[in-house]
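Notebook entry, structure prediction.
Reason for the run: the old model in the group folder had no record of what sequence produced it. Starting over properly, with the input documented here first.
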Amino acid sequence: MKSVVSFLIFYLITPAFGYSQITGTVNSPFNSIRQNSVSSMAAFGDTLWVSPKLNRLIDGETNWYSPENADSVINGKGRAFSMALKRDTIVAGLGFTAENEISGPVSTGYGFYFSTDGGTSWRFSDFPLDSKPPDRCISSSEEYEQPMGVEDYDPDCDIIFQYGGNMYTRTRITVPQQSVPFSTDIHGNTVFSAVWATGLLRSTDLGNSWERVILPPSYASTLHPEGSYFWSSRFTFFNEDIQDTDTATINRYDPLGDFNLLGFSVLIDSQDRLWYGSAAGINISENALTAPIDSISWRHISYDNSSDGLLSNWIIEIDEDPQTGTIWMTNWIAEGNNASGFGVVSTNDGGQSFEHHLIGERINDIDFKGDYIFAAGDNGLFISPDRGKSWIKQSRIKSPNTFIRSSARHFSLAVTTNKVWVGTSDGIASTSDLGNSWDIIRTNFPLSGGNAYDQEAPDVESYAYPNPFSPSTHEVVRLKFEVPKSGNVKIGIYDFGMNLVREIENNSFSPGTYEAVWDGYDSKGSKVNNAPYIYIIEVPGKQINGKILVVD
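New structure, fully documented this time:
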């Protein structure tokens, strides 16, 4: 297949959206999303689910549903890293950030949530871990037996498993650190999850039990039960000749020694094939849904510098166009891997060849609406009206009352019956006309009455967010306030000497709740110094004051 390596990106030209401009009232629902940065979304029919707290919205509604009995995400430390939907069934892969005194924050697996009644009730499945090895294998144990060479390797310190007619060993996964369920998919009662350091998990009973799926070594183009394979792993022992620790390579299934065992994405396609994306390419199985765990076969494809191959090896996201059956996947550059760059590839022949798209763009997610393809990336939102032949980079997403920051990263996509949804680092945007107009949703904290996440919050007349504010990082700070009756509204930013730094609004408004924005620059176009600043909002009948701490 001919590789489409050249493409044209058209930029939508729209008038500049002034940072000091207020364009309309903002909604203040009590039930809103938990945070503005939304990295994972999933949709089925008219229903949308979003991370991190499993909030749900049905098209046409304004209040977001929060699951009442999913304690691990509502009241606990868990957050949804991945979700998969099938009618009334929802599967959510959960993780959290653990603190490590030496290495700092570490992404950690937490478990899975299952609902079979549309989210009314939830069942938690613990993250599957291996049992600890015998004490003689643990260096901190008094019974530890120090290996003095490769001949002292003890298979019982690891897990012995069978694949095909051969026996192998694999390292134990006894802690959940670095095993976040980044991607999950479901078919009937069978669930697959790509779980980074753990690799690929399969459950055939909706999470009541889990199996670890065996994957090809990075060097292998296939994995079949009839073959014999070598997974490279470093074995540590004490070398008496050098009076120090030494290492040797042994045959052991070990994610530390093989990038293809590091899982990031998974898809069950309409032909019941399983696609698994790793840091070493794409893997395709025709029988992973039904075969015993020791008999799952794979084709493994990695970057080979060909014109119709992958752009690079790290497969972050895999999606299927529901109308054409074409498989699309994002390609990122993995450390230590050869690659030509970031981008997106598509295949309509089961991975025999690939077309290239959006070369150079770091794309996080892909979704489809009719003939249109949407790609969310670090550099913005890209839209193809002709199934990938040409691409439009969406200009700044703005609604009648707000906008998405131009520096915002676009993380996730979902398509409901009537809308396309985009999760960004600055809120959720939705369009019902393929990108011609937008609505924007952010986590809401009403000026009075708190919200679903803080119901005892005191009433305030205004607030600024984020605060402290970094112009370089946040781009804008938003000032939320209420206009009690029609009249002129004037908003100014002052230094602590009460010298006017910049007037950001002076116009007539009708009653309602509004948000003004300030970009951290003075009236002369210079970035202000780090310091506290005072904002004064003059509305009919009163004056409202507040503080903004600028730290850049």
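Summary: The longest strand covers residues 89-100.
The old model has been moved to the deprecated folder.
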